[in-house]
Amino acid sequence: MSAKLPPGLALQKVDERIMTLNVGPQHPGSGHMRIIVQIDGDFIVACDPDPGYVHRGEEKMAEYRNYILNIPHLERPVIHDSCNVLYPYVLGVEELLGIEVPERAKYIRVIASELNRCIYIMYWLAIYGIFLGHSTMFMWPAGDRELLIDLMEKMSGARVTHAHFVPGGVRNDLPPNFEDVCLRQVNYFEKRIKEYAAVFYDNPILIARTEKTGILSRQDAIRLGTTGSVLRASGVDYDLRKKEPYDVYDELDFQTPVLKEGDSYARSKIPWLDMMESCRIIRNALAKMPKSGSVRVKLKPNPKGGDDSVYKRVESGRGSLGCYIVSDKKPEPYRLKLSVGSFRNLIALPYLLKGEKLGNMPSVYWSLNYWPVEADR
Amino acid sequence: MGTATGIIKALNSGIKHIAIKRFTLRYPEEKLKFVGDGYQFDPSTGVGIAGLKGRHMLFHDHCTGCQLCSIACEGVAEAIAMVKVPDQQTQNKKSIMPQIDYGKCVFCGLCVDACPFYALYMTNDYELSSFSKEGLIYTPAQLAVKPYVAQDSEIKITDRGATHG
């Protein structure tokens, strides 16, 4: 290489022992993102996650649509968790417009958001199973998820991307007889997910593969700014449903599971424990919900906010999910920023993978509860 | 728990499922049951009526050609176009009605929320596939037809598990 390089460019020095490997962006396991790993034999020396392949410009798109028409596209980043993605936006717009939500609508929202959390976690768990080569764990969650999708379909009319939450409540009231069907299916669902312990979580093969891999200490978890299940698997009890209760979460009885280990196994177990708490929340909310009443406040067409800004956040399936809205007295938001849990958890990946075997990469990566489309927005 | 017992326990929990009826919905033969006739909206109260958000249904005798559904769709999917219709309705002076392109529609139902004249509802019809792009465009005349949807299967939960039946 005698040719002179243009100024500002330099050749990278390559160690003979180190091989650079691109995992993704077309890899079915990585999702729409790339992980550049440098390996020495079987061990990962360095890792550089490279998201951004499914950037959709959600935040820019929101600046050209009014507060109601923003709903369908804002739930696209995570179609399995669409109620939770909309939740901070809806709460924020309500504060901007000064709307008081009916009590029954608050309970319906909590039920819908907990059902969605379970739907998301089941999908995540199915992929976690197939990442580890456990095809039963792919089929079972994918099948049992149907119980909850059926409930969401009865409730909102769509199996995914429900567009059910609106500023001022929810789009429609519950169908007749929904409470009984919901209770029956959620109880059966809880019985089913408890069976996963024998086949997956107590399975010695799974434990051997995931225990003591990718350990994130309590200090590191806080320092790197991780949220949600990753943070709680490292022993930090931080859940926005408890710490900053929104809607009616402060009236419901539930706990947030915390584990101390901080390894892949703990990170994969927290969402599963979360689902059981979600079932408890749904039962609790169904019992406490007012039996009748309004579910939506009638808004003026093209509602306008004041000269104000608002930041609201909720606990989604992947951690804290915030929405910052700036209004300038127009029907459209001046600026909308989504702050998502996926992106925060991805920051931990280079720290966790250093020194791991390449074979452990999928389990460590997916245990971070990462959803590529949400991180790219 | 030892490794051997753990593996046997895991195998056992899978083997139990041989005797249990399958949960899978055998789709073209069996079809899911839905609540109601599809998503509808009551403009007087501002609240919708629960139902599946499927293909739309247009009531020609209610539609005034006000284009509110089309304006609502502009910010979402641009699936609704207003087209001339041959039949003369007294309430529809311009004789224009929505034509919906299901290649673009995302089934959010905001057009139904926008309609103040009870003219646009959604139905349970979800089987809209076509061999051509033109086949996905439903004219006002096609949208006026009430669909027939077979609904015979719902989730049943027994002591031995859940089935579609």
Describe what is shown at a glance.
The complex is a heterodimer of chains A (377) and B (165). Chain A has helices at residues 58-62, 70-74, 82-97, 103-131, 135-156, 178-201, 204-210, 218-223, 228-233, 240-243, 264-288, 341-346, 349-353, 361-367, 372-376, and strands at 18-23, 34-40, 43-50, 165-166, 169-170, 307-316, 319-328, 335-339.
Helix content of chain A: 40-55%
Number of helices of chain B: 4
Q: Percent of residues of chain B in helical segments?
A: 10-25%
Number of strands of chain B: 9
Please tell me the CATH architecture of chain A by its name.
Orthogonal Bundle
Radius of gyration of chain A: 22 Å
What is the name of the CATH class of chain B? Alpha Beta
End-to-end separation of chain A in angstroms reads: 41 Å
Regarding quaternary structure, how should these chains be classified? heterodimer
CATH superfamily heading of chain A: Cytochrome-c3 Hydrogenase, chain B
The number of strands of chain A is 8
| Rg estimate of chain B, integer Å | 23 Å
> What does the main sheet of chain B amount to?
3 strands, antiparallel
DSSP strand (E) fraction of chain B? Answer: 15-25%
Highest CATH level, the class of chain A: Mainly Alpha
